[in-house]
Amino acid sequence: MLKSFRGGFTLAEVLITLGIIGVVAAMTMPTLLNSTNGAQYRTAYKKALSVLSQAVVLNVALDDYDLSQTSAGVDADETNIYNLFMNRMNVVKTSAGGGDGEGWVASNDETVKFGSKATTGNYTLFFNDGITFNFNSNDSGCTAGSGNGTVPEKICYGYIDVNGAKNPNKLVTCDGEAPADYDKVVNDCTVTNPTDMYPVKFYDQSILPNSSAAEAVLYGGK
């Protein structure tokens, strides 16, 4: 007896299969894209901290001054923060004001405060790899101090945007943390999906994270 068999799929079966694939893709693609972007942001942030720190060390070797010996302003012949990075990194553009971070500006306190992009004294350096560094050009003598009180502590602050003007231009926060509260100390902070903006503090020859979330991204090991 001859056995009957089918040589292929019907159109209805193909359409049903494609529909199922489409639904699964729609459910998983956003998570996959966020994870991919987050990994890129994490890598770029670690790179940015590294190259900025290397620039300070190189400047010590070549021009014999670090962040603790800087003066205020952006004058070309001065030993200021602006010239330190201009001379040691591939800067393609500079911009006075708060940069491209939806109004986030560097402020001379323990956080990066939300304010006008045109804040007096703020400068943004655009590097050739797309990273930007925002700081207050009125800052000077950025130091952790002597420890015995003879040289007072003066920490300086800014932020890194790992992809410049590109979105999302969102400050990194701990999971479940509101952006307005990012500067609070958070125990056991985790950052599942890193974003592109990171507050930093800098002094002497050090450039370090300046929030729990920024620390979590740097030291999280992912």
UniProtKB/TrEMBL annotation:
Q: Which Pfam families match?
A: N_methyl (PF07963)
List residues traversing the bilayer.
12-33
Q: Which UniProt keywords apply?
A: Membrane, Transmembrane, Transmembrane helix
Q: Do you know which SUPFAM superfamilies this protein is assigned to?
A: Pili subunits
Q: What protein am I looking at?
A: Prepilin-type N-terminal cleavage/methylation domain-containing protein
* Family annotation (Gene3D superfamilies): Glycoprotein, Type 4 Pilin
InterPro entries, per database record: N_methyl_site, Pilin-like
